[in-house]
Write a structure and sequence with these properties.
This protein is of the alpha/beta class. The protein contains 5 helices and 5 strands; from the N terminus they run βαβαβαβαβα. The protein is 45% helix and 20% strand. Strands 2-1-3-4-5 form a 5-stranded parallel sheet, sandwiched between helices.
Length: 123
């Protein structure tokens, strides 16, 4: 059975790139959220195997999403990858402080994202 990945990003073209690469080259089931609140609801409902989230989204940032998920016993252990268009050190430092191990700067290599995804999911 294919593993389920939640992709949360308000940029449609980023979602399309991520979804295409994960579904076609990684054989994953991808569910999509266009803002942080929708991603939180979907994560609690769907219990994905991995979440890939942008930092800057409407209604809730990727960091806020991560923190909210960590408060819930059923979602606190879902692995998380952050995508960011801002390559500022402060984003990497904040992510590290929160316990986010994987942060990719946009534009990112789809091959690198797929490799990290496989590593996280133990494939």
């Amino acid at each position: 059975m294919a593993k389920k990945i939640l992709v949360a990003d308000d940029e449609k073209h980023i979602v399309q790139i991520v979804q295409f690469n994960l579904e076609k080259k990684g054989n994953y089931d991808v569910i999509v959220a266009s803002d942080g609140e929708m991603a939180l609801e979907m994560a609690k409902l769907e219990k994905p195997d991995l979440i890939i989230s942008d930092i800057m989204m409407p209604k809730m940032t990727g960091f806020e999403l991560f923190e909210e998920l960590r408060l819930d016993e059923e979602t606190k252990n879902i692995p998380f990858i952050i995508l960011t268009a801002k390559g500022q050190d402060s984003y990497f430092e904040e992510g590290e402080e929160k316990g986010i191990l994987h942060i990719l700067t946009k534009p990112f290599s789809p091959k690198a994202l797929l490799a990290i995804t496989k590593e996280i999911l133990g494939e």
